[in-house]
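Researcher: We're reviewing a set of sequences before deciding which ones to prioritize for further study. For each one, I'd like a predicted 3D structure that I can look through quickly. This is E3 ubiquitin-protein ligase RNF123. If possible, include the structure in token form so it fits the rest of the review sheet.
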Amino acid sequence: MASKGAGMSFSRKSYRLTSDAEKSRVTGIVQEKLLNDYLNRIFSSSEHAPPAATSRKPLNFQNLPEHLDQLLQVDNEEEESQGQVEGRLGPSTVVLDHTGGFEGLLLVDDDLLGVIGHSNFGTIRSTTCVYKGKWLYEVLISSQGLMQIGWCTISCRFNQEEGVGDTHNSYAYDGNRVRKWNVTTTNYGKAWAAGDIVSCLIDLDDGTLSFCLNGVSLGTAFENLSRGLGMAYFPAISLSFKESVAFNFGSRPLRYPVAGYRPLQDPPSADLVRAQRLLGCFRAVLSVELDPVEGRLLDKESSKWRLRGQPTVLLTLAHIFHHFAPLLRKVYLVEAVLMSFLLGIVEKGTPTQAQSVVHQVLDLLWLFMEDYEVQDCLKQLMMSLLRLYRFSPIVPDLGLQIHYLRLTIAILRHEKSRKFLLSNVLFDVLRSVVFFYIKSPLRVEEAGLQELIPTTWWPHCSSREGKESTEMKEETAEERLRRRAYERGCQRLRKRIEVVEELQVQILKLLLDNKDDNGGEASRYIFLTKFRKFLQENASGRGNMPMLCPPEYMVCFLHRLISALRYYWDEYKASNPHASFSEEAYIPPQVFYNGKVDYFDLQRLGGLLSHLRKTLKDDLASKANIVIDPLELQSTAMDDLDEDEEPAPAMAQRPMQALAVGGPLPLPRPGWLSSPTLGRANRFLSTAAVSLMTPRRPLSTSEKVKVRTLSVEQRTREDIEGSHWNEGLLLGRPPEEPEQPLTENSLLEVLDGAVMMYNLSVHQQLGKMVGVSDDVNEYAMALRDTEDKLRRCPKRRKDILAELTKSQKVFSEKLDHLSRRLAWVHATVYSQEKMLDIYWLLRVCLRTIEHGDRTGSLFAFMPEFYLSVAINSYSALKNYFGPVHSMEELPGYEETLTRLAAILAKHFADARIVGTDIRDSLMQALASYVCYPHSLRAVERIPEEQRIAMVRNLLAPYEQRPWAQTNWILVRLWRGCGFGYRYTRLPHLLKTKLEDANLPSLQKPCPSTLLQQHMADLLQQGPDVAPSFLNSVLNQLNWAFSEFIGMIQEIQQAAERLERNFVDSRQLKVCATCFDLSVSLLRVLEMTITLVPEIFLDWTRPTSEMLLRRLAQLLNQVLNRVTAERNLFDRVVTLRLPGLESVDHYPILVAVTGILVQLLVRGPASEREQATSVLLADPCFQLRSICYLLGQPEPPAPGTALPAPDRKRFSLQSYADYISADELAQVEQMLAHLTSASAQAAAASLPTSEEDLCPICYAHPISAVFQPCGHKSCKACINQHLMNNKDCFFCKTTIVSVEDWEKGANTSTTSSAA
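Model: Here's the predicted structure for E3 ubiquitin-protein ligase RNF123, in token form for your review sheet.
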């Protein structure tokens, strides 16, 4: 192996030591006196060297081995103890007892030190116990859930409900609930968080037991422990499902040693002394330089020392590493000796100096150690470094994290070490994503935030979507000063965090370097393979928590990756003018169908990939010149047939881990083990990716490219970046795409992975972290409420004043804590830079979707998550980053809103998208989009043909599709224009609960007259659009209201039973949903009648009369059910059941009233008469229902004024804040008109014999006869029937025509059955 140093390379074989005492003199060695001085300087530098090591005999390379042996001799008292130590029983190497010392199901790491709970409350103990003396061990907390950590005896018996501390002679500390346990429980200690270290101490001389958290003593927890014959205590833990920790019994240096206490596992004392002496010699080499010309030794700074190929220096180092190399493979020595040495270099020198020394050290390791030795050393070094970074406390200047990251960067700058770590360690063995995470402090006082942010402040209102912001009082001078002081503190914190983030970005820049391909594959392409596997594990294991990267890590990883990605993207643009800037980035559509990037089993827009390859193979050939290998299609078909049989061989290929279970379970080893650093070595099975069978000449447009499947590991740089005749990832460019590449193909794959990361867990975590801001708002509201009560409380009530003062103090202290923690969250998660990253990702997705849409049918190959990320990232920008940062301040905000609106409008009903979930997401996003003025205006800005196409899709018949969301969209376009439909909170709730701040709230109305006009134009076009749409709306209204009535009957029956009954909350929710659907359907009918009244009132249209009669029938049914005296509806409303808050008279009656007023008051006289006659002709019509609207029990006598309404009754007049005076006047006019018309109709009506009534409805006289069968009914019944069915009611004969029929008439008029 070769190593680089001072521009020269040296072969390790030339300087291998030999045992031959008679070897010849090596040429190039300096003269004897200088050699003696040099060797004495190097090997006498150890402070602990025994006298024998410094003899008067001149030192040379012949007697140096003997001298080294004497130097490394260790006194007898420092030798490791191989037998039993007094006070301890068990193996000298302490691990978890996975063979018999456990209860429940647990997953144990390969090193038998990390454990994950895999059952309700599993327990496990160690293999070694203690009965005398003072002992301790450390537990690294990987998750902050329910765990009980401590000690137990071998006689303790545990189960799935009782763990450590729940039995006699077992003692535990629980930082989740902040308690100590020994059969009973009391408060103790502090709350722990992920990243903390708990030290468990037991003093069996005094019989006491205590705990420390991050080196700070929590005090004595238990006294008077049972001691004596047969009493020995084991370290033990009980943990709930998915919780994880790692133990350190002494196999590594303790992070927080305690004087007088001994770790359960003895350190390798003798080897530690030898390693420290050898390190002293090594440091001496780096500080001395030979001057053979002058014959003297020169002192040299380590950062300026260079290996110049001098044989004397090389042989000296070879002797040192002959003894040092085996020691550097041991975990304890790497962390205690090598890590401390390297950290000292980083802490004392500048970054440049530290980098120089670390680079020299790594060069020497690779030169003088065997490959397997240096690889083990580097692996242990990175594991220790990661552990130190993750479990370091947060200090105000983040100095510890900065030092660990600087050392990581220095190591990764060494090309050979970087490639080895990237290929074998970073993603395979380590949780390397931890390096990009900045943990949030649970205890702000320990993190120094009180000094950094001495003044606290919190906003007084919420600006999140869906929450009505309260009127903000004018800011006082004192509040303004507090806010500005708080913002200055936040700025100081943000600057310190930015230093750490920049170091993390530097790490990723090193991993994404593609210019280090001398003698091997460049780092970027190794990273791509590992990164894709990382994504596969997290995508395929979403239900298996141990296999997932924690979402808080993923958020930080995504932001650092975007920064590094954009750096390289713009760097490539600087040297390639034809490429694009990162601001114009997108993923070309051919990446989704050429198979060069593996999307695992993620759903495509058009369904499964195997299905798309079969159904769209002709389109692939014609548009992209791609032919799928027939063998590929055949193997895919066989995979589909054998899908149920796949898991067995897949699991057989995975290595088993140590399982702490009662019997053998065929569990695959989890990918993210509980250890802070250990992961799975062999995580993945082979995954498929399609690669070119590379042609050797340019392709003509008529030639096709046949593709075949390769595993991810088999891809080469050429498969990704392409070559002269190979487009790599961009194989199969459609004609719509430009010929010039956007950037390097490898960066496109990284960008694709970043989008996938956001979809996997980042969005979910962004929503979760908003909880801190919500807590601040809730406590601020509680504090204001308490202060108001203090001001109103009489001074004589000192007891109440004392309680209120106490509450005020508690709320103030909690707000101080939360406001500082919120500052940390805003700096690490919701800063302006993070917001720009998410915004950039949104724009990338929008451009990707737009380019994919242009490919026609090939758009179906796009993974669903691109649409999901576009929807969710917009939601995050709008809801999660305020009020500190506003989306409206982002560059190109209006244009982005419009582009997203165009995508939602076009694709919510796109036939190329088949997935139910993604179609629902698109529909819900569009429904949310039209609720808010800014986004609704964006919908109105999209091209007119797209707007019309969107409305046409909304007006499609409701059958055979999810219609509820469509209906909500139409309602939101209307809200603010309907009768009494301008409220933001349900008026009937405000009348009963004036001060309830938790009432359901709605957005302020923002109707769209433009989209309403498109709807009117479309309903007037063609003879079938309006009838089919309205018929489906009437059908759904009939269903929804009937279901609602049936459910409230069941609720009423349950409430009237003598025994105590609880109505199922799910049933109440469904009932309320049916009511809300009924109201929304009525509002859509109101909008339709208002915009296009002729659809119902122009009887020259063949379906108008039928639609009007159906409408009148349903309106009468609703009115009769809701307005009857002491009826079912009244009784259920009076119950005020939780979950039925929206069910009341007002919402449904004003919707019905709006329709009736439009039909009977606002239209021309002729149309009003038609509507009146149809309404009165319906047998269910009752004038009393119309009187009910104005609070009148009976209709008034003709010519008399309306009496004052009864306050106990429902009346629209009681809602003057929501119903205008003009609207009330129209209702009164409608009542007067119907009173007069019903009286005239009653006087003019003639009795009808039963034989002449329609045999279907028994409400109207027979007026139509069917041909050819001759059966009869009224026109309303047969017209409604023919909308859905062409068979006769009675004989099932196909109806050819319907003829008018009148008793006694000799002629008839024929009309078409259609």
